[in-house]
Amino acid sequence: MEKLIGLQSSEYEHSDDKKALDRLKSNVAFRKIMAEVIRQGVERIYRIQYTGSCLKVDKDDYPGIYKVLGNAVDTLGVEGKLVPDLYLQYDYMINAFTTGEHQPLLVLNSGTLDLLEEDEQTFIIGHELGHILSHHVLYHMIVNSLTGFIDLGALINAAIELPLFYWSRMSELTADRAGLLACQDVTACIRAMIKMAGLPQSQYKHINTQAFIDQAHEFNTKNTGFLDESFKFIAIANSTHPWLVLRAAELLKWVESGEYDALLKKHRAIECPHCGNDIAAGDNPCPICGSLIR
Ligand SMILES: [Zn+2]
Ligand SMILES: [Zn+2]
Hints:
Blueprint: H1 15-25, H2 28-39, H3 42-53, E1 55-57, H4 63-76, E2 85-89, E3 96-99, E4 105-109, H5 110-115, H6 118-133, H7 137-147, H8 158-183, H9 186-197, H10 209-222, H11 227-237, H12 244-256, H13 259-267, E5 269-271, E6 278-280
Parallel strand pairs: 2-4
Antiparallel strand pairs: 1-2, 3-4, 5-6
Bound molecules: zinc ion (2 copies).
One zinc ion (ZN) binds next to loops.
């Protein structure tokens, strides 16, 4: 995987994610909920729950599993406190999630490891790192609190639920882009999505990425101009459904726009011919020694 130097999440965040989150943050009711979530120590409650029930993975105990996270962390340039602790939980649905804004904790389902190839796992892990890098995790904890074990009582009503679920859907589109930037193989992303969408394991050897890409394109063409509306409906109708065809369609649109390639080209690591340090291909002069790169 090409390491991406100096990549900022703002360079790939989906515009609908940003717009929806800005709208949320300016909502007074939302700010009250956020304060309550912080007051109740929700981050700590989640942390206790998962560290007390899931299997911890680090580079010494399960190096083969940890390596996939380590590579994605390197590729996306995740640093310091943003590097999540890694835990596993027994569940054969292909899925992963992250909790903890201040001390992120990434939980992978066993199925994600047993049913996905390494490049597909990298997509899933990169997707979660994308949520961390864009600081989605606090707001996701609020979304989960709506359906989970934290009682926010009267603070929650439809007027806040709808924009919250809508943003949550949009945040997936940003995270999918981070997943692709981590694995750098769009067919690996598509394969992971096909498996998540329901392909049985007995059919994995017949997996047809092109058929799913065609399905996504067809979905896009038939629903042009209607996507906003359908997103709003999906947001309420089924808050946890991954809605994979639409996600694939949005990811492919981004690739076909050329933005993805441009980011890879700009941030891929090259060696400075003067000082020998790794710098981003788009950097000139070298940010380390100041020499002009020809
Ligand atoms: Zn996600
Ligand atoms: Zn240099």
